[in-house]
Design brief:
The chain is 71% helix and 3% strand. It is mainly α. The two termini are 27 Å apart.
């Protein structure tokens, strides 16, 4: 190897051109991994019918959301495995493996037979692919963030790693764009029948490009220096999680910034999308337009807040994001309801719905065992139908053993039905028949079946109309995104600076993926289940609100300012 080709031994030796190459290559690969991971979320409602067709509708949708979350649940395992590889053998090798696993798993989802063809094996194989995706992503983020940070100059570390933070939004934009284009070309019927496979299948080409780009990279200066000095950790797990000086930092990272990042980011990007489409009944094309708009806004904001943290510090910028979102949770979603579906908001206030049920007849709607009987009682059928309709309700105790009744305002009362003892197909038929009767009663009482102003096409005039009518929704969504970007933008630099080089990959990756994977990935399903159990479309927001408040306190009192730390020491 010539002197010109020799790897840099410190960040100071890295030329601006070399740093740009490192950032571009790392970011490009990470964009691809986020695309792979997010495309499933964009297609959750479509895939529900293909892989969980044997389940009742409400349960199938929640199961689909949890299948989405399975990938998050296993992310900490991937963080441990690839963290050890990254700290023992190098950063570059670790994220070459992760990107290959992610790409192959995503392509495999596009090839899976559905439940109609192979029955229960369809959801089993789908879950297996999601596990592989989550396992790979567990090692990706830490590797890319550390690799860039260890090449970056001390006073520009936030700006350099901000590009890695922005890759999540670019990956999400890519996923939404491919879904949108496929839908537009094929039409909704063909897309739902088989076209949903296209966004997964195109990933194989992206995989080849990303692997080739990353093959051109060299090892990071910090790891190279550690290797030359013989200081590579041979006990990364023990050093990270059994020595209090390091475990303390792991716990602060988890219950501070990372717990907040999980609930804030996924509320802004995923639960809000679910809320618009599932609760407010805004048509999918309008929701896609809104999400693409706010995610496009987010891309430069990550860079802005990351650069800002180089000047004023990581901690104040991240705390600003937490506090802003904490102030927005409840008023923000109330305003979105009023602006997105004013008729539903008015009907909820003027014509309240009451479920009168024997408490013993009601179960918690997150019991996803897949059994045919678990949502067959009259209470479960009534609550499930109302939740599917996006209608909030209160509950009154009814006589023991009596069928559930639904009272809509002062004029309409609907008697429920029980499907106890029926076969699965009979239960589904009973639930469908009751949902039809309920929908007719709700319509009579003034509840809209869909939000007004559905988007008809993607012409400039139609897009302009949607923007003018849904400006209130978009404004609140942008505020959500500002909060998420302020918290997420400086985060990579802050985490890298928090941990010593010899255990950085292992110790940093675990709290990151527990925070984002468990608190964030499980958020849509948990919030939906709480809403269904309580009857309020807002009560589930207490989960992210409480988590954010705890994280803000931990960050304020215990998180050190790190922007001036020497990460090579």
């Amino acid at each position: 190897m010539t002197d010109a080709q020799a790897p840099a031994t410190s960040a100071a030796d890295v030329s601006p051109a070399k740093l740009r190459q490192v950032v571009a290559a790392s970011a490009a690969g990470t964009v691809f991994e986020w695309y792979d991971f997010f495309v499933y979320g964009a297609l959750a409602s479509v895939m529900s019918a293909h892989f969980f067709a044997g389940l009742p509708d409400a349960q199938a949708f929640v199961f689909t959301l949890l299948t989405f979350a399975v990938g998050f649940i296993v992310r900490p395992i991937g963080a441990l495995v690839f963290g050890k590889i990254g700290d023992s053998t190098g950063r570059k090798g670790a994220f070459l493996i992760t990107i290959t696993i992610m790409g192959l798993a995503t392509f495999a989802i596009g090839m899976l037979p559905t439940a109609e063809t192979i029955g229960v094996w369809a959801p089993i194989l789908l879950v297996t692919c999601r596990v592989a995706q989550g396992f790979a992503l567990g090692g990706e983020y830490g590797g890319a963030a550390i690799y860039v940070a260890e090449h970056a100059p001390d006073k520009g570390r936030g700006a350099a790693t901000g590009w890695i933070q922005g890759t999540a939004s670019v990956g999400l934009i890519g996923a939404l764009a491919v879904v949108l284009i496929s839908r537009a070309i094929l039409g909704e019927e063909a897309f739902r029948a088989w076209g949903w496979r296209i966004p997964f299948l195109v990933s194989i080409g992206l995989l080849a490009i990303s692997v080739w780009i990353r093959m051109q990279l060299e090892e990071s200066p910090a790891f190279q220096k550690l290797k030359e000095e013989g200081n590579i950790s041979k006990r990364a797990y023990a050093e990270s999680f059994t020595e209090w000086r390091n475990l303390k930092i792991v716990l602060i990272a988890l219950f501070g910034v990372m717990m907040a990042q999980g609930v804030v980011w996924y509320t802004a990007h995923f639960y809000s999308q679910f809320y618009l489409e599932r609760i407010l009944k805004i048509d999918s094309q309008t929701v896609n337009l809104i999400m693409i708009t706010v995610v496009l806004v987010s891309a430069p904001l990550y860079i802005f807040f990351a650069r800002l943290s180089d000047s004023i510090g990581r901690k104040p910028v991240m705390l600003f994001g937490m506090l802003l979102m904490l102030a927005l949770y409840f008023p923000g979603f109330h305003f979105i309801t009023q602006a997105g579906n004013p008729a539903l908001d008015a009907a909820s206030r003027n014509t309240p719905v009451v479920v009168i049920a024997d408490p013993a007849d009601c179960t918690f709607q997150l019991d996803l065992t897949g059994g045919a009987q678990q949502f067959s009682t009259s209470c479960d059928i009534a609550k499930g139908a109302l939740s599917n309709a996006g209608v909030g309700y209160t509950t009154e105790a009814g006589p023991a053993g009596a069928l559930t009744r639904i009272r809509i305002g002062d004029q309409i009362e609907l008697e429920g039905v029980s499907a106890a003892g029926q076969t699965l197909s009979e239960i589904r038929a009973t639930r469908a028949e009751f949902s039809d009767r309920l929908r007719a009663a709700l319509t009579e009482a003034g509840y809209p079946s869909a939000a007004p102003g559905a988007m008809q096409n993607w012409s400039v005039a139609e897009i302009s109309r949607v923007f003018s009518e849904k400006w209130g929704v978009i404004a609140v969504m942008v505020l959500f995104i500002v909060a998420a970007c302020a918290l997420y933008g400086p985060q990579a630099a802050a985490l890298v600076e928090l941990f010593p080089t010899r255990i950085r990959y292992t110790a940093m990756s675990l709290p990151y993926h527990v925070g984002t994977g468990w608190f964030g990935g499980l958020l849509p399903a948990i919030v939906f289940a709480i809403n269904t159990a309580t009857g309020s479309i807002y009560s589930g927001l207490w989960f992210p609100a409480i988590a954010t408040a705890i994280a803000a306190l931990v960050t304020f009192f215990f998180w050190p300012e790190t922007k001036n730390r020497d990460i090579h020491a």
